[in-house]
Specification:
about 170 residues; alpha+beta; six-stranded antiparallel β-sheet; 3 helices; about 25% helix; globular
């Protein structure tokens, strides 16, 4: 089970990887970074991607409240207004709210509703891909892996699968 540095190193070994970070989406702070940042500042990128992650995790359009009425621990405003404005203009954003890997009964391997409400986000720009993969932890956390990839040399499908596996194995603490 890799720690933060090993996780970032493995993410950067993916074809087309330009930069990677582990970010806390409630505070917007980068817990670790590697490679380049799209805007030249890892901390600013962490704060900006955290806004996107927070919106996807909190707005019911992307992550409907579970039938039992429970909400994501530590996620204020899970029933906020529609989609947030700005930030992704000119890009396609894709979310998967099936954090239980398609398991329709909502209890894949005992996960139930305790994990993140969104599994991952993919933002496609003209020159690259941004993959945000949410990390489930044993404590109340809101962490995701962010991988920035070159569109010409990166393999989006491979990166998404490997990043998801990294998120499952990541050891925080």
């Amino acid at each position: 089970m890799p720690g933060i540095d090993a996780c970032l190193e493995e993410a950067m070994s993916l074809p087309g990887a330009r930069g990677a970070a582990i970010v806390d989406w409630t505070s917007g702070l980068a817990l670790g970074t590697a490679g380049q940042s799209p805007n030249g500042d890892h901390e600013a990128t962490a704060a900006e991607t955290a806004e996107l992650a927070r919106a996807a995790a909190e707005y019911t359009a992307f992550a409907p409240e579970p039938p039992d009425g429970s909400a994501l621990p530590g996620a204020p405003g899970t029933s906020g207004p529609g989609a947030p404005g700005g930030g992704t203009q000119g890009a396609d954003a894709t979310t998967r709210a099936d954090a239980n890997n398609g398991d329709s009964d909502g209890d894949s391997e005992g996960q139930g509703s305790k994990g993140p409400p969104v599994q991952d986000l993919i933002v496609t720009t003209r020159t690259g891909y941004h993959i945000l993969s949410f990390v489930e932890t044993t404590f109340d956390s809101s962490v995701f892996l962010h991988l920035w990839m070159d569109r010409d040399t990166g393999n989006l499908a491979l990166a998404r699968l490997r990043l998801g596996r990294l998120a499952e194995r990541l050891v925080l603490g």
